[in-house]
Design goal:
The complex is a heterotrimer of chains A (281), B (340) and C (322). Chain A has 10 helices and no strands. Chain A has 281 residues and is an all-alpha fold. The longest helix of chain A is centred in the N-terminal third of the chain and has 37 residues. Chain B has 340 residues and is α/β, with parallel strands linked by helices. Chain C has 11 helices and 12 strands. Chain C is of the alpha/beta class. The chains are: A mainly alpha (281), B alpha/beta (340), C alpha/beta (322). Chains in contact: A-B, B-C. Chains B and C meet through helix 6, helix 7 and helix 9 of B and helix 8, helix 9 and helix 11 of C.
Chain lengths: 281, 340, 322
């Protein structure tokens, strides 16, 4: 077994909660990939004669107000929600960490520019800003991803800036210059990779938050448009029916949402242990 | 001074001032320092914290840019090349540095192999994998690091092994001058002995010149031929190691030497007390001796005229009005008009 | 000499439970300190000297377990004491000062307040007199300009001054025993000298005993009446300073002295000690220096580790002392 695999085994073996979270994560990814194929019904197929049926053997999660199978919709939504959150987090991570690390390492004008931009973004209540971006640019999937990414950039930028600032003074940075690296290489090869471990934890926590954000936008009507299945929109639609007793319409997507966020939060710590070589024994 | 053969390192009036944030004041970390190092010579740089020795070491190693003065290396003025650009010039391979804290000076994500290979790759243009591997293994043997440890990360190595990696990557390109900033201070006494032997051996084998910075006078005495004593940014005494420790001329050096703990009761000196607080290094007066106020022997002239390095014996200089035997000659008065 | 020692540590063994196994940090450590005496505890990193000090103060890491031994101080076994009893004597009869003084002080409380805290806890002083006593203590440790410095924070002071403040905290209630764990490592040699002179002065005037923990043999030689040499959790030798240096009996002690840079010695005279400190997690031989020792013989593997008294007050843990 390679050193990394052995270390991974050790980290997960030592911490059953993280192992459980990893298992759940794998399950989610698998469902995202194969979900729509194993779904018993077409998530968009409506059949009003079967509307508002409670969970039964034919429809494990029941049906919604237009007769669509909720289980199939939840499965289809898994793929969409995961895609949105991964894309948004990846985008904000890449842009934010690069800008922040450069700002922290070089200081001067780079630092001033990046901090002004992040301060401007952070001056807005973030969800309202996301709403504004989507409202201005239109309700497309790409814009939802963009909006979620933009409001998340300051978070990574500040973290990367702080990490790079600290590492700038480290002995190995001076040693890197002695080895013939120009400033850009010192940043890219030496400083940046060492800033990553704490940020990877944040990225994992962020995945959960990004799903919630997308769901929230959909909930208020600024996100994904019906009839596309997405957890947030499904909860929004189902909320209206809770009072009249059809609890299953909102519950199952809500539980799926909760499990996904919970899983990403738990995974964050485990990933940090895995990536930080100082913890390797 | 007789015109000597071209020195390996020729430092003239080197000065480094740092701005104090929020004010127009400047911190004089290194002030008008002049000295030379010949090829293959081992020179020690001693002084207490805040004297500027670490700053001077970094100026010589071209990690910092000087505010004033010149640094000549092999006849070439390297002080004018900005530190950022110097990293990619050929001269970079010929001046290298070893740091105090081996754990801090190694990238936690690089294995020992990566650390030693990096300068070979970047400056030595050695890209071919097999050749690179061979050279790294050669270097590891040279510094006494078992090949099996090359695949390890810094946190899996002991302090002594980490320092061997640090030394290995510094000598990998066969530099001419090695600047060592307290290389053994963070190590246990028995490991220190091993590393000191290694450094002496390397110097013999590779013909290296050393600038050995340390606060531990006993160590400096053993591994250097000449010593420079620094106080608050200035060199106050310079001479052969044995002479500086046995017959120090400057009051500060005398106090420093007397403060070193000595096991053998017979070897103990009368302790010379250094009282009061050191002067501030921020905008110090160019007319007052930096040691004035704490010096047990200060007199009126010490606060009117900055003493300069003057011979007290052949090849032994001290910057003190009391010790310079040319103190009263008119020639030295005009020379000792103070730094510009 | 017939007076019982102030502190008598007998057969102290401590182990740590870690992820990688059980670390046998101390094994059968015994030492004693008499009133007014300075005992040097010398050893390299991993020798167990700090662990011993922390055990005496009762501030060991939670993963540590004392598996055997007693440490009798003023009639009380420190290791078996309750937390209540420990809090009572800590800071009052038994004090400690640490390395890195700036990090050992509370960074968000002024130094005057920190001294007042100790006084409030232990000294029976009326509230109004506390500040006066604190100022007195600061002056006692030779801090200049005490009135102004009373409100200073640790970051405003130099390393040497912070160490003086820590000493003031430690001696506030005139302890009978002060443990100084590498008090001057990292400080300039001139500052080091004045700090140690201060400690010597305090000892002389109050008859305070001191355990000076250091890796610097020269320092120990200058300042200590007796020296205890430790290696990998064992006490290997214990003797009066002059006997230890003129005639060391344990091979490790002799090697340690030979590998310490000293004036008059050349680099060739500096003889390194072969091998490394054994891994305290694995299986350990009776004598933990055995693998590095040029005098080792078959009988060295047989437990128990001997404790021979080669001379009055000179103990060696070796089957073939020099």
């Amino acid at each position: 077994m390679s050193a990394l695999a052995r270390h991974a085994w050790y980290v997960f073996g030592d911490n059953p909660v993280t192992a459980g979270a990893l298992g759940l994560f794998i399950a989610l990814v698998v469902l995202a990939v194969v979900g729509p194929m194993i779904a018993p019904y077409d998530p968009l197929a409506s059949d009003t004669t079967m509307a508002l049926q409670a969970p039964s053997r034919m429809h494990w999660f029941g049906t919604d107000q237009v007769g669509r199978d909720i289980l199939s919709r939840v499965l289809a939504a898994t793929r969409l929600d995961l895609m949105i959150s991964v894309a948004a987090v990846a985008l904000s991570f890449v842009v934010g960490s690069t800008a922040g690390a450069a700002a922290g390492f070089f200081g001067g004008w780079t630092d001033r520019l990046v901090t002004r931009v992040t301060d401007t973004i952070m001056a807005f209540p973030l969800f309202v800003l996301a709403m504004g971006i989507v409202a201005a640019l239109g309700n497309t999937l790409a814009n939802i991803v963009l909006a979620t990414a933009v409001i998340n950039v300051p978070f990574y930028a500040r973290m990367a800036r702080a990490e790079a600032n600290v590492r700038r003074e480290a002995g190995f940075v001076e040693a890197a210059r002695l080895a013939g690296n120009g400033s850009a290489r010192v940043l890219a090869v030496h400083v940046f990779p060492n800033c990553l471990p704490p940020m990877v934890v944040q990225a994992s926590l962020n995945l959960g938050w990004a799903i919630l954000n997308a769901a929230g936008l959909s909930f208020i009507g600024l996100g994904v448009r019906p009839p596309t299945p997405e957890w947030g929109i499904m909860v929004a639609e189902g909320a209206a029916f809770i009072v009249s007793g059809e609890w299953w319409i909102a519950l199952f997507p809500g539980v799926a949402l909760m499990l996904a966020v919970f899983c990403f939060n738990l995974l964050g710590d485990g990933l940090r242990d895995l990536i930080d070589p100082r913890r390797r024994t | 001074m007789p015109e000597a053969a071209l020195s390996l390192l020729d430092v003239r009036s080197l000065t480094k001032r740092f701005p104090v944030r929020g004010t127009t004041y400047k911190l004089h970390a290194v002030d008008d320092v002049t000295f030379t190092i010949a090829a293959g010579e081992s020179v020690g740089l001693v002084g207490e914290s805040g004297c500027g020795k670490s700053t001077l070491a970094r100026l010589i190693a071209r990690l910092l840019d000087p505010t004033d003065g010149r640094v000549f290396f092999e006849g070439q003025d390297i002080g004018q090349i900005p530190a950022a650009r110097f990293a990619t010039t050929p001269a970079r391979a010929r001046i290298q540095m070893v740091f105090q804290d081996p754990a801090d000076s190694l990238n936690p994500r690089f294995t020992a192999f990566d650390a030693i290979a990096e300068p070979l790759h970047r400056l030595g243009r050695l890209h071919e994998r097999a050749a690179l591997r061979r050279r790294v293994e050669e270097v590891a043997e040279l510094v006494g690091l078992p090949h099996a440890l090359l695949g390890r990360y810094p946190h899996q190595l002991s302090g002594g092994q980490q320092q061997r990696v640090g030394i290995g990557r510094a000598v990998a390109l066969a530099p001419l001058l090695l600047v060592l900033d307290e290389p053994t201070s963070a190590l246990d006494v028995s490991v220190q002995a091993v590393i000191l032997h290694l450094l002496a051996e390397l110097r013999r084998q590779l013909g290296l010149a050393y600038l050995f910075v340390s606060h531990d006078l006993n160590v400096v005495r053993m591994i250097t031929e000449r010593v420079l004593v620094m106080y608050l940014g200035k060199i106050v005494e310079a001479g052969p190691s044995e002479v500086i420790f046995d017959r120090p001329a400057h009051p500060y050096t005398r106090a420093l030497v007397s403060a070193v703990p000595v096991a053998d009761r017979a070897g103990r000196r009368q302790r010379i007390a250094v009282t009061g607080e050191p002067q501030s290094a921020v905008d110090p007066s160019p007319h007052v001796c930096r040691f004035f106020g704490r010096c047990p022997d200060g007199f009126a002239r010490c606060e009117q005229q900055m003493p300069v390095l003057a011979p007290v014996a052949p090849d032994h200089e001290a910057a003190c009005h009391l010790s310079a035997n040319t103190a009263e000659s008119p020639c030295s008065s005009s020379m000792a008009a103070g730094p510009i | 000499m017939t007076q019982p020692p102030l502190l008598a540590v007998a057969d102290l063994s401590i182990e740590f439970r870690t992820r990688e196994g059980i670390v046998s940090a101390l094994d059968g450590v015994s030492l004693s300190v008499r009133r007014g005496e300075t005992v040097g505890l010398v050893g390299e990193s991993g020798s167990g000297k700090s662990v011993t000090a922390l055990a005496l103060m009762g501030i060991l890491h939670p993963a540590a377990r004392v598996t055997s031994g007693r440490a009798v101080f003023g009639g009380l076994d420190l290791l078996a004491a309750s937390e209540q009893q420990r809090q009572d004597y800590r800071g009052r009869a038994l004090s400690m000062i640490f390395q890195s003084p700036r990090t050992a002080l509370n960074p968000i409380r002024s130094i005057g307040q920190q001294i007042a805290d100790v006084l409030r806890r232990h000294a029976n002083l009326p509230h109004a007199k506390i500040k006066a006593r604190a100022l007195e203590l600061l002056a006692r440790v030779q801090i200049p300009d005490v009135e102004r410095r009373f409100d200073a924070y640790p970051f405003e002071l130099s390393g040497g001054m912070c160490q003086r403040v820590m000493i003031a905290l430690a001696i506030a209630c005139a302890p009978a025993l002060l443990i100084a764990d590498e008090p001057t490592t990292g400080l300039d040699v001139t500052t080091q000298r004045s700090i140690l002179d201060l400690l010597d002065d305090l000892r002389r005037t109050t008859q305070m005993a001191m355990i000076l923990i250091t890796h610097d043999l020269g320092l120990a030689a200058e300042r200590c009446d007796r020296i205890v040499v430790m290696h990998a959790g064992h006490v290997v030798e214990s003797a009066a300073t002059s006997s230890l240096f003129t005639a060391p009996r344990h091979p490790y002690t002799a090697r340690l002295i030979a590998s310490t840079p000293r004036p008059g010695a050349k680099l060739a005279d500096l003889v390194p000690i072969p091998g490394t400190v054994p891994d305290l997690r694995g299986a350990l031989t009776a004598c933990r220096y055995r693998a590095r020792c040029e005098r080792a013989v078959a009988v060295c593997d047989e437990p128990p580790l001997p404790r021979t008294e080669t001379d009055v007050g000179h103990l060696v843990a070796c089957r073939r002392p020099l």
